[in-house]
């Protein structure tokens, strides 16, 4: 049975921080961000925009009423959960009006969680061919002011509809995963921001890429020559570039190496404007590739490297199907230009503002601009979401 991604959508915050502005405020050379990280802008969420609103907006942009009546599983992958018990997918299920007899869960393993969700979704459709599974990777990457991680923040959500006979790409039946018990990036329950060992994490990312890729090639008797593109997890685009250089086969013909390089450049276009979206970063890279590559055709194979600190990595592959371009958007970069540009002072106020909860667990939420959905209030410790402009 052919199973894969039938539709894919994206949503991000309505506010943006320019990296040159941040560099000037932090007294660093702008090249440190523009060339050292390959970043231009970061999406910034206000207090009424979170993984639920972003995830619902991303899914709403692609789902038909027929989809909502057929979906029988919603999986949200995140490391920015709004509740230690209740899954974000239950809120999204309600906001989207998906039929009631559906399973809703949340998955976590740092930035790897969405890949685990895809694996689960594919197995579910394999067992229940008429089912559709909505997989949402939704995160707000948040670090402290003037910390090393600050320029690698961001926010966004990628929604993918998994079904049989997909119209974008097939998920191939080949993958290799690897686990290491390491402390390169983590966030204890008592901390609102993560702890990061940046240099160590970079080394682990690249070493797990190298060793997992070697095992993948050995198990499936394949090589880079069999793929038209390679997508990477994108905590920041420069790290993905290092990964691309690590897997590059110097023995490939020059024209083929150039094709791979062109397609790699297509994978990072959106991340350069949005920043880090944790679980969705790999899939934002995939979306960026599909919507911006000039040479991909049906039948092309794409390799994907997923990485989540802690750490779990997986390499798998997908095949483009006939008509995939008809399912994509062509003006997304232009749309990103419509975000509201923040001063650094406004960014610090907006991004780190928290709901002021009173003794009864109530809070009025400021009405900042969001996508289709917003956090309206907190009432008796319960988060109340709704469509924008709905009373």
Automatic annotation (TrEMBL):
InterPro entries: HMG_CoA_synt_C_dom, HMG_CoA_synth_N, HMG_CoA_synthase_prok, Thiolase-like. Belongs to the thiolase-like superfamily. HMG-CoA synthase family. The keyword Transferase applies. (3S)-3-hydroxy-3-methylglutaryl-CoA binds at residues 29, 143, 242, 276. Residues 5-164 form the Hydroxymethylglutaryl-coenzyme A synthase N-terminal domain. Keywords: Acyltransferase, Transferase. The active site is at 79 (proton donor/acceptor), 111 (acyl-thioester intermediate), 233 (proton donor/acceptor). Its EC number is 2.3.3.10. GO terms for biological process: acetyl-CoA metabolic process. It holds the Pfam family HMG_CoA_synt_N. Residues 245-385 form the Hydroxymethylglutaryl-coenzyme A synthase C-terminal domain. It comes from Streptococcus ruminicola. It comes from the Bacteria. This is Hydroxymethylglutaryl-CoA synthase. One of its GO terms (molecular function) is hydroxymethylglutaryl-CoA synthase activity.
């Amino acid at each position: 049975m052919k199973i894969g991604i039938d539709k894919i959508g994206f949503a991000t915050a309505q506010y943006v921080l320019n990296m040159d502005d941040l560099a000037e405020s932090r007294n660093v050379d702008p090249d440190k961000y523009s060339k050292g990280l390959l970043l231009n802008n970061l999406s910034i969420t206000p207090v009424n925009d979170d993984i639920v609103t972003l995830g619902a907006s991303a899914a709403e942009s692609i789902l038909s009423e027929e989809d909502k009546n057929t979906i029988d599983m919603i999986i949200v992958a995140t490391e920015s959960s709004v509740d230690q018990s209740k899954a974000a997918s239950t809120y999204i299920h309600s906001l989207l009006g998906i039929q009631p007899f559906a399973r809703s869960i949340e998955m976590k393993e740092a930035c790897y969680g969405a890949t685990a969700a895809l694996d689960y979704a594919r197995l579910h459709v394999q067992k229940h061919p008429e089912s559709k599974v909505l997989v949402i990777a939704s995160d707000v990457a948040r670090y402290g002011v003037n910390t090393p991680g600050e320029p690698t923040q961001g926010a966004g959500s990628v929604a993918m509809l998994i079904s049989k006979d997909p119209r974008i790409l097939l998920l191939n039946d080949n993958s290799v995963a690897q686990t290491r018990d390491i402390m390169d990036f983590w966030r204890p329950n008592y901390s609102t921001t993560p702890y990061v060992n940046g240099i160590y994490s970079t080394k682990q990312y690249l070493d797990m890429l190298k060793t997992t890729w070697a095992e993948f090639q050995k198990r499936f008797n394949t090589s880079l020559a069999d793929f038209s593109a390679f997508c990477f997890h994108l905590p920041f685009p420069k790290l993905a570039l290092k990964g691309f250089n690590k897997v590059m086969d110097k023995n490939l013909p020059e024209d083929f190496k150039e094709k791979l390089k062109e397609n790699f450049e297509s994978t990072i276009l959106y991340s350069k404007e949005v920043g880090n979206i944790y679980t969705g970063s790999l899939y934002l890279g995939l979306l960026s590739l599909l919507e911006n590559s000039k040479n991909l055709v049906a039948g092309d194979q794409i390799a994907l490297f997923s990485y989540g600190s802690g750490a779990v990595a997986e390499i798998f592959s997908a095949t483009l199907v006939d008509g995939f371009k008809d399912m994509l958007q062509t003006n997304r970069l232009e749309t990103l230009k419509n975000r509201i540009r923040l001063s650094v002072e406004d960014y610090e106020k907006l991004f780190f503002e928290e709901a002021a909860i009173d003794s009864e667990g109530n809070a009025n939420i400021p009405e900042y601009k969001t996508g289709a959905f917003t956090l309206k209030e907190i009432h008796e410790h319960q988060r109340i979401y709704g469509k924008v402009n709905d009373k």
